[in-house]
């Protein structure tokens, strides 16, 4: 017998969504020289004020550019209050951060990560001088078509590197689904209703939703994490932030009460490598995530009214997890994505030197 919730989701989804075919993520067009420069910058601790952090501290390739922590690291004396999201296919996103507060381009994302006090806490004027004092950077900026190291050039290079982080080799893209995963795909698109929000080639609608995810008490119990949250909340204009004990999510963009505790739908690509899950890392396994949605999400008065108990039996849950795992490749090749000084092809530099001479 078809359950009412399945009928509800079937009505919400178009026939094309219900029969969603996997579309491999296509590589983005970037400057190879600029992306190589961006790779070096991505792993360079000198981009943080006290040289204690790099972008790669929280975004490690062997974990699909996450860090494996429930709540990510932050600048010395602080701690982050959110889970580090994957950078897989980040160049295709329409908005960034769990609350979606950045929506222009990856250059803006790089700037916020580098300059925010509780993140990398870097004065970009100092960063520029650090880059200028490194002869390898001087050469690499020139090879990338820039006369000298600059803040804008560094951000553009980081943007091009991040655009190279594209999913590859997932079973879903090669049509290599197991029988269990095929059954799970049908559940994903119909009975479970996951495709209502997890749609398109990246399996996300890039929109905020309240699913009733509970808070992570560590944010309020840790002085370092709480101080970082207070800094963020004050800057974003959240009222009564000193007494606040919840993450308001997309509310910081709209300041509409009905958007409290709403967070962007995460991509499901590479989720095999990106535990813990949810914006605050409160779920350790895919089994926990499936159980959460099978129960109809969490208890929140503003929860999306499409979330209802699903009544999945154990075999259906196992099939759904098999499908979810089919959306991941073999993570990202560390040899390809990690910067090593000896790997850089100085032939590029010699080309422009010879040209200039």
Report on the architecture of this protein.
This protein has 357 residues and is mainly alpha-helical. The chain folds into 2 domains: 166 residues, Cytochrome Bc1 Complex, Chain D, domain 2; 157 residues, Orthogonal Bundle (Cytochrome Bc1 Complex, Chain D, domain 2). It contains 17 helices and 2 strands. Strands 1-2 form a two-stranded antiparallel sheet. α3 runs antiparallel to α7, α5 packs across α8 and α10 packs across α15. The longest helix has 13 residues. The termini are far apart. The N terminus and C terminus are likely disordered.
Keywords, separated by commas or semicolons:
357 residues; mainly alpha; Cytochrome Bc1 Complex, Chain D, domain 2; 2 domains; two-stranded antiparallel sheet; 17 helices; 39% helix; globular; disordered N terminus; disordered C terminus
Structural topology:
Layout: H1 4-12, H2 15-18, H3 32-42, H4 55-58, H5 106-115, H6 124-132, H7 135-143, H8 151-163, H9 171-174, H10 179-189, E1 208-209, H11 218-221, H12 223-235, H13 251-254, E2 263-264, H14 286-294, H15 314-325, H16 334-337, H17 347-356
Antiparallel strand pairs: 1-2
Helix pairs in contact: 3-7, 3-8, 5-8, 7-17, 10-15, 14-15
Q: How large a portion of the residues is in β-strands, by DSSP E?
A: under 5%
Give average pLDDT, whole number.
Answer: 90
| Number of helices, where a helix is a run of at least 4 consecutive DSSP H or I residues | 17
Number of domains: 2
At the fourth CATH level, what is the homologous superfamily of the largest domain? Answer: Cytochrome c-like domain
Mind describing the biggest β-sheet? 2 strands, antiparallel
SS elements, strand count: 2
CATH class of the largest domain: Mainly Alpha
Distance between the termini: 79 Å
If you compute it from the alpha carbons, what radius of gyration comes out, rounded to the nearest whole angstrom? Answer: 22 Å
List SSEs in N-to-C order: HHHHHHHHHHEHHHEHHHH
Q: Are there runs of 5+ residues with pLDDT below 50, and where?
A: 1-19, 346-357
